[in-house]
Amino acid sequence: MNSVRLQKHIHATYARLRYGLAVIAAVFPVLLYVGGHFIYGISPRDTMSEYYFASPVPGADPPMRVWFIGLLFVIGGFLIL
Question: b/e map of 38-48 (b: 16 or more CB within 10 Å)?
Answer without folding.
Answer: eebebeebeee
